[in-house]
Write a structure and sequence with these properties.
Elements lengths: L21 E14 L4 E8 L5 E3 H6 L7 E6 L3 H12 L3 E5 L1
Parallel strand pairs: 1-4, 4-5
Antiparallel strand pairs: 1-2, 2-3
Length: 98
C-alpha cells in the first residue's frame, strides 16, 4: 500500500501520490481569501506541516484513480469542505473529524 508520505511542496498536486491508496492529514483547516478567475472569494484549505496551504481547489483538481481512503483530522469545521474535495479528487471514502 502506498501513502502520501512525501512532504507537500505546493506544486506537485497532479503527480504526487497518484498511486496512493490512502492519505491521512492531521493539521489545521482554515478558510482563506483567494483570487479566482472572476473575483476574490473564500476557500477552505489545510495548513500542512511545512506551513504551505493545500486549498480545496488544488484538492479537487487531483486525479487519484487508486485512492481509497482519506482521513482528515483538521481542527475546524473546514474539514467538511475538504472532505467533499477529497471525494471529488477520487477518494472512495473520507473520514473528516474536527
Amino acid at each position: 500500500m502506498n501513502d502520501l508520505s512525501s512532504p507537500w511542496d505546493g506544486g506537485t498536486a497532479n503527480t504526487s501520490g497518484v498511486g496512493a491508496t490512502w492519505a491521512h492529514f492531521a493539521c489545521h483547516g482554515i478558510q482563506v481569501e483567494v483570487e479566482t478567475i472572476n473575483k476574490p472569494g473564500p476557500t477552505s484549505c489545510l495548513i500542512l506541516a511545512n506551513h504551505t496551504r493545500l486549498t480545496l481547489l488544488e484538492i479537487s483538481k487531483l486525479k487519484l484513480p487508486h485512492a481509497r481512503l482519506a482521513f482528515l483530522s483538521a481542527c475546524t469545521g473546514e474539514s467538511v469542505h475538504i472532505a467533499a474535495g477529497m471525494l471529488v479528487a477520487g477518494f472512495r471514502s473520507v473520514i473528516g473529524t474536527m
